[in-house]
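Researcher: Please translate sequence to structure tokens.
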Amino acid sequence: MIGPQNVLVFLLLLLGFVGATWWQYRAGNLALRLVAAFCAFLAAALFGIAAVNRYYGYYQGWTDIYRDMAEESGSSGRGVPEVKAFSAGYPNAHGQSMAGGRLVNVRMNGRTSGLVRQLLVYLPPQYFDPAYAAYRFPAVELLHGSPGTPTDWTRHIPAPQTLAQAVRERLAAPVVLVMPDISGGRRLSGQCLDAKDGPHDETFLTRDVPDYVAGSLRVRPPGDGWGLAGYSEGGYCAANLALRHTRTYGVAAVLSGYFQPLPTNRTPDGRRDPFAGDRRVRDQNTPMRALERMAAGAHLPLFWLASGSQAAGDTSAARGFAGLLRAHRQVAPLTVLKGSGHDFRTWRNALRPMFQWMTEHLTGGSGTGPAPSPTRVPRAAGGHLTGASPANQGPRTVLGR
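Model: Translation complete:
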């Protein structure tokens, strides 16, 4: 089926604009000329929208557009059956089938933050395999961008499907994917911060979510068995939170992220400075400054970075961050995706190498019970180095599609 990014759609819109313009020129009746002018304007506007969609790679199918329009005011876990809480043993009946496993939508009460938000959790098929009955799975917490919701990880960036395929090809190991609502609304932007006089997003994401998931499912406790990843605003969140909670996450992946907070957040009351003018707190939430001020030899999560080759600013920022990591004797792999920019195309293509790298390092953490041997993951290309790395060795750059 022809999708919204197909060239034929652009040709039809162009023909519609030309036809409506010709009709306006030929029509003698004023009313018909106004109708023709409106049709020409509509075709031009739709052409512009389609061009933006093609550039960012957002909507891949017509159903994506319909769901966004029809369910804009719905929950952040829209389309996924909601369960009240995880139950002991977690029966197969809960959630919906996805990529051979189960996708579950839970409305979670944050005990420490006081926030009530949606949480999507993907349980891989191995979670229900008797061979894994004594195994506690690593977890990867995925942070969406803004505007966005957790379902972006299942619709626009198919994380469960990509992980399942990589596991089948023995390029990655099975993990539980945890996809929280980071801001409380599709159009809101909180940058995963504990805002002064505002919601405590950081507390929700780094304490409430890991504690709830690890206490309800066969998932490892926060620490070396937990990973954190995000794109765009979620990429900033991943970098910032991983550095602020070095004992909660063992690895972190930053996809087209930025490394210093934006001046304001988008709240229901308008734009606000999340730090209320406190420069000291802002610096504490600036990953570049945080790395500069950390003592040599400080315990850090391992980082993996990615950007699109056409987003020079993203790549430059990632290289700067990787350079500061080298001062802490860590060489972070940097994957630059050829032919894409700050868009969903980049983030979709980054998932497979990201999962390969993350699960290689996460599965090395302590857990209860061994994983069956067929899930052993080969060492990923462009791995990290810690300890005595050569001073002139930079981040590894991988070009791909």
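Researcher: Any highlights?
Model: Residues 7-56 form one domain.
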